[in-house]
Amino acid sequence: MPTRVWTRAYLGLGSNVGERAQALSQAVAALGEHRRLRVRRQASLYETEPVGPEAQAWFLNTALEVDTALAPEALLEHCKSVERALGRVPRQRWGPREIDVDLLLYGPWVVCAPGLVVPHTQMKTRRFVLLPLLELAPTLICPRERRPMSDFVAALSDQKKVRPFAKKL
Q: Model-level pTM?
């Protein structure tokens, strides 16, 4: 089997059920246990108003910068296996989540595969994704539009509240 090149990727994490900070900490640790994934850096924690059904707790969100030798589909499957291992229960779309791990960016590539679109389709419209992401990589360029990710924050019209929560887990 040929050796896979290591690629820089970015993951978004969130939780609004149970001990939110603990769930994020456990997810970061579990993600880093894969031999073909190295967690490089983690953004601060942000407390964010939920998208979707309003009658739910606020989320804690963060982002990770990782290096991986996994293909995008395998990286997504690893993220989903971590969610399952930490007890994520399937619920309504945009509903409460014990843990959510999304593949936001995978190197400079645009990926369109069954069940996977990278860059993440909603990230440009969500302040709670962009702020932690830009904390890690302020000059990051969106591979699809080839524009700085910071342009998307400036263009946001959403009124959802996002506030700093803690520097690190």
A: 0.92
